[in-house]
Design a protein that fits this description.
Length: 157
């Protein structure tokens, strides 16, 4: 029976909605990325954090190429995930995950992953991923020319 099993949900957890919005895209050497900010209504992402994330990716780009998207997720007061996703092998979503934990960290760093069963995406992060899944499907079904590429880039709202 489900209630007698570990549901993975702490009994004290209270789920709150989060908003996501499209920001200007980021062009890196070899990659063009849409940009999504994800946060609660009362704690938007500070401009300096967005700028720090963009500058960090520009100065030390992840091993990602092609078309994709970024999710800058504010988790609580001072913790951020920076999830860089690119479409590879036609229909696979590949990711690099960075994080920043408050003022203790100058910039974003690669999120450590040493175990085999790990977190991938939160329920909130899945919203822009679903949005991108639909946009990529439309792109794959298109002629995939310059015009449809520009449409894909603008297809984020």
């Amino acid at each position: 029976m489900i209630p007698s099993r570990d549901s993975g949900v702490d009994p004290s957890y209270r789920h709150e909605p989060k908003n996501f919005g499209c920001e200007p895209p980021l062009e890196l050497p070899g990659a063009l990325l849409k940009w999504y900010g994800l946060h609660t209504a009362d704690l938007p992402i500070p401009e300096e954090i967005s700028l720090l994330a963009r500058e960090g990716l520009a100065s030390d780009p992840p091993a990602a190429s092609g078309l994709g998207f970024v999710i800058l997720h504010r988790c609580g007061k001072n913790f951020y995930f920076l999830i860089v996703c690119t479409w590879r092998n036609s229909n696979e979503l590949w990711e690099s995950v960075l994080y920043k934990n408050g003022d203790a960290m100058k910039g974003f760093e690669v999120f450590p992953r040493q175990r085999s069963h790990l977190a991938t995406l939160s329920v909130w992060e899945l919203a822009p991923v679903l949005r991108e899944k639909e946009a990529w499907g439309r792109f794959l079904r298109s002629p995939r020319d310059e015009a449809t590429g520009r449409f894909w880039l603008s297809d984020c709202g």
